[in-house]
Model the fold of this input.
Amino acid sequence: MNLAFCSSEVFPFAKTGGLGDVSAALPESLAKAGVEVKVFMPLLKGIEPQEMHDGFGVTKQGSVEVFFIKNDNYFLRDSIYTGEDGHDYPDSLERFSYYSKGVLEVLKKINFAPDIIHSNDWQTSLVNVYLKTLYKDDVFFKNTKCILTIHNLAYQGLSEGKKFPLLGIADKFFDKEYFEFYGKVNLLKGGIVFSDIVTTVSPTYAKQIQTSEFGCGLEENLKNKGQGLVGILNAIDYDIWDPAKDNFIYKKYSPNSLGDKAVNKIKLQKELGLAEDKNALFIGMVSRLAEQKGVDILSKAIDEIASKHQLVILGVGEPRYHKILRKKADKFKDSFSLILDFNESLAHKIYAGIDVFLLPSRFEPCGLSQMISYKYATLPLVNHTGGLVDTVVDVADGGGGFIFNNYDSLDLLKAIEEAKEAFKDKGKWQAVLEKVTKFNFSWEVAANEYIEIYKRLIN
Done:
């Protein structure tokens, strides 16, 4: 089976979040399962392919080849998606239209006829659109089917309606059945309509996005997919996220040497300038600092949290939250450490050194942090939504995390209080840690589910 996997970011070449991790780990797992995979992404600033050809570069990464679509005017920029104002580049439509046509042309140049094109999010959704419009009579693609995976429905790739002709497809598609969305061009909507199957990154999120509360205006389009909308739970790469072989953390440990987690806790406290105290409940968060991630309700709870416990937050995001969090960090210098940065090594140290990982998300398509936390014997504390429903069961119900059901700071604080009570009982806490380190969220499981979907489409 031949698969062309399309993504705007692939770790280690580029990563702004979970999409980059998924786009590295899933193709590798599919290749190990016998699928012939080629990955396509833009040639972004800082990437140096092993080989350069006319209009594209290529690098062998593990078991797969990664192809880079070259256009320096569009892709050689300091940031992948946004200008200095934090908004999408004004030429986003042109950039990803160029990329999408480029993918189909490079497939022909390298003579790789895919059985499946698997696109991800709005940035690559036009690959599927062009397959079904501009290339629909091209014999090279006569047996090719296409899938679109939605990683976060809130990001849809909107542009001014007057830009629609730049896509190069028939005017009739600028219609509410296809691309038109309140007068704008919606690239994700077009991708949903033209894809044979739409998947999303957890079963619960697949259900939620068919409702007005979580559908972001596209719930009817998603409902129309019927059996063609499927939720497959994301996974994590245990080659990267495993404290037994993690070179970033202070001291490696495994389920058989969980005592060494305490070494990581003390050393992290020291590095962050917090009191070195193994009995303090140490709470942490590594996240984009945006409303989706629950930073609004967390901000209101910080005084209460930081006056009783230790807290570390690592991430960057909306300037308004930077401002609020900076004020709180100044107020609680001894108990709250704020690092407004994306720092891979410190992220690993936080997973290894804290006791409780916060995921107070307003909505969460899948979430990878809770899966990583388990591996590092850190218990997740989550809002009961999206993929967090599929992966976290409360300690009180025999699971390995803490759950709150109402999206507000009072309910969040109540769950932290429950975590504190559980933490006091050292024997019980240890038993839960031993249990969660054995949970398995490997890509092997998810890859097999995708292969079943691919086979269903081909047949």
User: Anything to note?
Assistant: The chain has a mean pLDDT of 96. DSSP finds 16 helices and 18 strands in the chain. The CA atoms of residues 269 and 276 lie 6 Å apart. The longest helix spans residues 92-109.
